[in-house]
Design brief:
Number of helices: 11
Low-confidence stretches: none
Distance between the termini: 35 Å
Strand order of the largest sheet: 6-5-4-3-7
Helix content: 25-40%
Radius of gyration: 26 Å
Structural class: alpha+beta
């Protein structure tokens, strides 16, 4: 469905950019194949108005012109939609190259590579190699979940989705009806932030726990979409960054270095174990489970119980 809409928008944009005179709705309907398949004039009018608004939101300048007979026509003049020349200095080119390398393992790798090729043709400095390795550390954003691409498109197109989701403490997945806001990568894991329609509250979903296919729903959003900063704060909170208490854990020596980086105190216990105090917030139980037998929760009791519940759910499969 998303591909069909993108193709329809592209055909409409080409018609408006390619004409030397304003085209009426009737002429546009005859020129765009998808419009010919509209069930009625009302259906076509609704589709055309939505498409016109979408193109304007994407930055296309569409003019509305009335001819001598009073008929309304539309066109997009090339001079009004021509971008200024692209000029990049060495630092800007290096930043774009770094961004492209980050996405090499994702489905966006082809798009990132193609974009850099176009920038090179548009005047990217010849002495700058965007793919040159500037350090021993090479950034990567791994994307292995099949749900990433359909959710990315749903966030972009503002389309509600339905998917099956298995909580860490549950043995079986359950359906979720979500209005997706944004995808965020946190500590190497991808999360979807959005509005859960059934629970009537904002929720964050870890993509690795989404099972089956992501299905689109052709309806409008019912809740306002927050700005990107607020979404990131929401993901950070659900992923365990908003700590307001302290937890005490036992950790094997030479293990769990990410936990050590968060520790406020470390005490050696002997026999290959150390005791750490770390910030405790929402999501810490899920993080501790990832370290398996290298971590033992001492207190608080509620955190210990949450970790045990998660481990039992993993053991059940």
């Amino acid at each position: 469905m998303a591909i069909a809409k993108a193709e329809r928008l592209m055909n409409l944009a080409l018609c408006l950019l390619g004409t030397r005179r304003p085209l009426s709705k009737r002429e546009l309907r005859e020129s765009v194949e998808a419009y010919l398949e509209a069930a009625s004039d009302d259906a076509f009018n609704r589709m055309f108005e939505r498409d016109k608004d979408d193109l304007r939101e994407l930055g296309l300048v569409i003019e509305t012109v009335e001819n001598l007979e009073g008929e309304i026509g539309y066109l997009a003049r090339r001079d009004s939609n021509r971008l200024p020349p692209i000029t990049l200095d060495a630092e800007e080119a290096a930043a774009l190259g770094l961004a492209a390398k980050v996405w090499q393992q994702a489905r966006l790798a082809g798009a990132a590579s193609g974009a850099l090729q176009k920038l090179r043709a548009a005047g990217l400095p010849e002495d700058v190699d965007p793919y040159e390795a500037h350090s021993a550390l090479e950034p990567r954003i791994p994307v292995h979940e099949a749900s990433f691409e359909p959710l990315m498109l749903a966030c972009r197109d503002r389309r509600p989705v339905v998917f099956d989701y298995r909580k860490a403490t549950a043995a079986q997945p359950e359906p979720r009806n979500v209005e997706p806001w944004a995808l965020e990568c946190w500590r190497g894991h991808w999360y979807l932030a959005g509005w859960d329609r059934d629970r009537r509250a904002e929720r964050v979903f870890r993509l690795s726990r989404i099972t089956g296919k992501v299905r689109s729903r052709g309806t409008r959003y019912t809740a306002p979409v927050p700005d990107v900063v607020t979404v990131r704060e929401t993901v950070a909170s659900w992923a365990g960054e908003s700590a307001d208490r302290t937890a005490r854990i036992r950790l094997r020596t030479d293990a769990g270095y990410p936990l050590r980086a968060k520790a406020t105190s470390v005490r050696e216990l002997g026999d290959g174990w150390e005791e750490l105090e770390i910030p405790y917030g929402h999501g810490l139980d899920a993080w501790l489970v990832e370290f398996g037998a290298d971590v033992v929760v001492l207190e608080p009791a509620e955190l210990r119980a949450d970790v045990m519940d998660r481990l039992r759910a993993v053991a059940k499969g």
